[in-house]
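Quick one, probably user error.
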């Protein structure tokens, strides 16, 4: 697979192509190594990390829905220090750009987590202020511009890595949140995280999830995510990474044509691990057939 024409940079970090495995769906890369050549990916965004180990949510965690998936994992993870010592060395050897997705229950936790990661070989940090599946922190930090700016500004003081901020589609004004994050020091933004949603078990006559609500991902959200990315690309002077139901080369190209610098692939890999490789090949084939020499030249006419 030739990928030189798909190479790009985000905040000074070089990617061999614009396809990144999304946080929470690709583990730490090694889980998919038996099925695909993981080294061909542009980047891998880790499972969500928190300063201290987190057990995640109890009860049901996944529920399929038409053209989508509801999840209520709750950011189960071993903690930042355990990730750095136990998971990062093997992840680093896989080859793609390593992006650490960092969540937190408090501003102080975010800042300390970013400080620890800054001393590691991680390439970038994706600040998760948009997870709807945790009871404290998470999405609460990303709903209003002022709150988001406080988190980003504080983290920027301890984070020596390029900083991406992952945005919530549940924010009343996501463009304003993005602008506040960039003004506070974010090098890029990624959008969107999952939409707050729910399901009810009609036999039990009760919500499926103990937290009542969960996060909706998959093709069902793609047209809305695409619209948000289109608007963000016009609203902020920073690279935008598109996320939301991308499961094919055509879907990825729509986000790139809308202005996204790169894309993250999430739910699609659960049922079809090779989807990421098919998307990489499809983007390259499109560029060659349309005589496009750089990812940066991809745009609507």
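Nope, works fine. Designed sequence:
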């Amino acid at each position: 697979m030739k990928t030189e024409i798909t190479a790009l940079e985000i905040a000074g970090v070089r990617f061999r192509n614009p396809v990144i495995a999304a946080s929470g769906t690709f583990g730490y890369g090694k889980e998919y190594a038996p099925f695909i050549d993981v080294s061909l990916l542009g980047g891998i965004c880790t499972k969500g990390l928190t300063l201290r180990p987190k057990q995640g949510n109890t009860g049901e965690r996944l529920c399929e829905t038409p053209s989508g998936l509801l999840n209520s994992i709750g950011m189960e993870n071993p903690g930042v220090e355990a990730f750095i010592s136990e998971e990062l060395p093997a992840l680093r050897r896989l080859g793609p750009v390593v992006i650490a997705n960092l969540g937190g229950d408090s501003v102080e936790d975010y800042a300390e987590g970013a400080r620890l990661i800054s001393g590691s070989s991680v390439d970038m940090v994706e600040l998760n202020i948009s997870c709807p599946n945790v009871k404290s922190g998470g999405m609460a930090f990303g709903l209003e511009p002022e709150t988001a700016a406080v988190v980003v500004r504080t983290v920027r003081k301890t984070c020596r890595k390029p900083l991406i901020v992952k945005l919530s589609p549940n924010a009343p004004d996501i463009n304003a949140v993005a602008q506040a994050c960039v003004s506070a020091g974010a090098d890029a933004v990624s959008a969107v995280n999952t939409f707050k949603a729910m399901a009810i078990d009609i036999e039990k006559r009760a919500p499926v999830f103990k937290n009542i609500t969960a996060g909706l991902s998959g093709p069902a959200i793609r047209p809305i995510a695409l619209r948000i990315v289109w608007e963000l690309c016009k609203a902020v002077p920073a690279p935008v990474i598109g996320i939301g139901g991308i499961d094919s080369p055509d879907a990825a190209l729509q986000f790139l044509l809308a202005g996204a610098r790169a894309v993250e692939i999430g739910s699609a890999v659960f049922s079809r691990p090779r989807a990421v490789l098919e998307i990489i090949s499809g983007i390259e084939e499109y560029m060659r057939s349309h005589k496009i020499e750089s990812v940066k030249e991809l745009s609507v006419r």
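The first helix runs from residue 80 to 94.
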